Amino acid sequence: MEAIEVKVMSKSFNGIKAVDCVSFNVHRGEIFGFLGPNGAGKTTTVRILTGVIKPDAGEARVMGCDIVKDTQKAKEVLGVVPETANAYPDLKAWQNMMLIASLYGIPRREAELRAATLLKEFGIYERRSSKVKGFSKGMKQRLMLCMAMISDPEVLFLDEPTSGLDIQSARLIRQKIKELKEERKTVFLTSHNMQEVNVLCDRVGIINKGKMVIIDSPENLRTRIGGSLAVEVKFDKAVDMSMLGFNPERVGDNYKIYTTEPHEVICSIVGFATLNGLKIMGLNVQSPSLEDIFVKLTGGSND
Ligand SMILES: Nc1ncnc2c1ncn2[C@@H]1O[C@H](COP(=O)(O)OP(=O)(O)OP(=O)(O)O)[C@@H](O)[C@H]1O
Ligand SMILES: [Mg+2]
């Protein structure tokens, strides 16, 4: 059984196709990265898969439970950290934890034990008796994770869990995600942080304008789609690179050229420099990063 199965799922808002005939599977025990520019349909997908909204068409199952026909059952096996905080601000952190636990029908004693363990792991146990409205963004986000995990879900949906957090908080969350994988849990992770996705995810799905563009491992994406390498060059002064051809992209003081023939490009760069009296200050050949692939596949409309 797949952890998540999505078949030709669609959802429109006022005629705009937020999710457009999307199909994919997420395997059990996998960390699946879900990438896409702003407005691509990531949160909408998460909201459908976690039973918050209904799709207009298509099917989706989480651990075999139909999210539309059997929403309650599906909800029992999943946990979610939504894009915007869902804790009650006027309740204390501890009360929020107990509330969620009671919704899942977790016996009180067990709930208290789990809540204490989680809050300690995430470094907010000391603040358990403070109202959430006084929490910082990072503290709220960590609480959100604790709340999502109190039911020990098989599948965890995280919608940009580390966005806007400091390095320590983000690290803590990434560490936890890794531990979940060791426990064979499935994680569906939405993120704009390519480095994060690159190190954490087994596979990555890229969505653009509601359509799933590609799914593969970060490594395969780089070699398969990238195909090309990037030649990065820096000259001693500003130049009109249009003369060189190859359609270079400006990156700070450098110019980047994507090519499958780096030799040819480098020879042209050397010729161009000689002809124009330029000094080459830096020259290197890189394999494409996940970010490069993302830009290539989505037209560079990411923030
Ligand atoms: N409740 C809603 N009402 C109307 N339009 C909506 C609603 N929710 C989403 N949309 C639209 O659906 C599209 C996809 O939005 P969604 O929030 O899924 O994007 P996203 O990929 O999560 O973007 P971001 O990276 O900014 O979080 C957008 O055009 C958005 O305006
Ligand atoms: Mg979103």
What does this structure look like?
This protein has a six-stranded mixed sheet with strand order 6-7-8-3-9-10, sandwiched between helices. The chain has a four-stranded antiparallel sheet with strand order 2-1-4-5, covered by helices on one side. A four-stranded antiparallel sheet has the order 12-13-11-14, covered by helices on one side. The longest helix has 16 residues, at 167-182. Helix 3 packs across helix 4 and helix 3 packs parallel to helix 5 (137-149). The two termini are 36 Å apart. The relative contact order is 0.14. The protein contains ten helices and 14 strands. It folds into two domains: 4-217, P-loop containing nucleotide triphosphate hydrolases (Rossmann fold, 3-Layer(aba) Sandwich); 228-287. Helices cover 35% and strands 27% of the residues. The protein is an alpha/beta fold. Strand 12 (249-251) and strand 13 form a beta hairpin. Bound molecules: adenosine-5'-triphosphate and magnesium ion (MG). The site of magnesium ion has 4 residues, from helix 1.
